[in-house]
Amino acid sequence: MSASDPSCLFCRIIAGEIPASVVASTELSVAFRDVNPQAPTHVLVVPRRHVANAAELAEAGAEDLADVFATARAIAHAEGLDDGYRMVFNTGPRAGQTVFHAHLHVLGGRDLSWPPG
Length: 117
Ligand code: AMP
Description:
Blueprint: H1 9-14, E1 22-25, E2 29-33, E3 41-47, H2 54-60, H3 62-78, E4 85-88, E5 104-108
Antiparallel strand pairs: 1-2, 2-3, 3-5, 4-5
The chain binds adenosine monophosphate.
């Protein structure tokens, strides 16, 4: 595990090399709007540290993990989602993960059905 991977799309967004609509930034995390939103609010919260998925994030240390969730919570509140929102980590190809830098989807602003597809 390295701090940053120059071939990783989300590392390049974090570095400011690829533009994104950034909504929050902390010492440990960056949050930006999903380019293909699945709900009125669809934000991705990513740890600055390059880890492939949520499982690796859990091993990386409590600080990074806690900051991702605290950032997500602040975004949900700022976006007016206190009445309900969903947080999703797709983990691995079979779960639909397509970008292999851990990211927490924060989705809200419409009714969200269950179970997911
Ligand atoms: P996942 O399928 O869980 O790996 O989610 C990857 C997400 O990244 C998808 O929802 C994509 O729409 C989103 N995405 C891909 N490229 C970009 C980008 N350049 N800026 C913002 N979101 C992106």
